[in-house]
Design a protein that fits this description.
With 310 residues, the protein is α/β, with parallel strands linked by helices. It folds into three domains: 116 residues, D-Maltodextrin-Binding Protein, domain 2; 81 residues, 3-Layer(aba) Sandwich (D-Maltodextrin-Binding Protein, domain 2); 76 residues, Double Stranded RNA Binding Domain (2-Layer Sandwich). 33% of the residues lie in helices and 24% in strands. The chain contains nine helices and 13 strands.
Length: 310
């Protein structure tokens, strides 16, 4: 028997401009699919939004961006939560489920600068701002002449700090800039061979209570098979390696013809030790592809790197 769909849907979301854009995007899609569905937003401020004076890895990780939203769903104040997939921890709390929403935006990192068009042309000692250990280790490995400094805050805050001259350049996700209509700020898109993206980057995630079969049925038409396969492989790989924001880890999958190709790397923060590899296979076996890549990296030395980070 088919599950009756909900008559209303409350979307829990962070209140940053990007998070609100993402929630509005999901609301618009649901309204198109279900014209009679009443969809409202519940804006919330999370611990991750409140503490901006320390690197995210030092204050509890990306889970700080989702905990308050999960509480709202647990208490029945919200039906779903919209996240950037890259911000969702690899292990969900008991009682919650995760869905991938729609086609993926460009997953590449973007260089933003008013003076430079590439990392390679930046002079020795020039300061690059980033909040990501993943980006930091790759910049330090490929461009050891550059200085890397921590950069926190929402997209607008980070751009303001760049414009004030605190950094020569900053690196942000291209997806976020484009979703905010700020694509003209991109000086260059970084090739994935220079900056391998974060697991789930560019994809949207919908979280909901696992006992809500009606919500799962409502979301079914929003899934994009290619994005689901790629994100499944990436998250399986990261989960096997205990990936979190305090581990310089990258993973990115894409379709090449009929094959799913997953590339990954693990490195020390300074980029001095870095291992990388790739695995190809049938997208129907996305989970296994992710686990296989993780095992290959462990065999090539990722276990020693992860142990040193602990």
């Amino acid at each position: 028997m088919s599950v009756p769909l909900p008559k209303s849907c409350v979307i829990a979301t962070r209140e940053s401009r990007l998070a609100m854009w993402q929630a509005e995007h999901v609301r618009a899609r649901l309204r198109t699919l279900y014209p009679q569905l009443e969809v409202t937003l519940l804006g919330m401020t999370t611990r991750g939004d409140q503490v901006l004076d320390r690197p995210l890895a030092q204050i509890g990780g990306k889970g700080l961006f989702v905990k308050e939203l999960e509480t709202a769903m647990f208490e029945g104040r919200a039906d779903i939560a919209v996240h950037s997939m890259k911000d969702v921890p690899m292990t969900l709390p008991d009682g919650f489920a995760l869905d991938v929403f729609g086609p993926r935006e460009d997953a590449r990192d973007a260089l933003v600068s008013t003076r430079y068009r590439s990392l390679a042309e930046m002079p020795e000692g020039a300061v690059v701002g980033t909040s990501s250990l993943r980006r930091e280790c790759q910049i330090r490995s490929r461009y050891p002449h550059l200085a890397v400094a921590s950069l926190r805050g929402n997209v607008e805050t980070r751009l303001r700090k760049l414009d004030e001259g605190q950094y020569a350049a900053i690196v942000l996700a291209a997806a976020g800039l484009r979703r905010l209509g700020l694509g003209d700020r991109i000086a260059a898109l970084l090739d994935t061979s220079d900056s391998l993206p974060a697991v789930g980057q560019g994809a949207l995630a919908i979280e909901y209570r696992s006992d809500r079969g009606d919500v799962a049925a409502m979301l079914a038409p929003t899934r994009d098979a290619e994005t689901v396969a790629c994100v499944t492989a990436e998250r399986a790989y990261s989960h096997r390696l205990a990936g979190s924001c305090d581990v310089p880890l990258a993973g990115f999958a894409r379709m090449e013809g009929a094959e799913l190709v997953l590339r990954g790397l693990v490195a020390t923060r300074d980029g001095a030790r870095l291992v990388k590899d790739e695995v190809r296979g049938d997208p129907a076996s996305a989970q296994r592809i992710g686990e296989n890549l993780a095992q290959r990296l462990l065999e090539r030395g990722a276990d020693a790197i992860l142990e040193s980070l602990r």
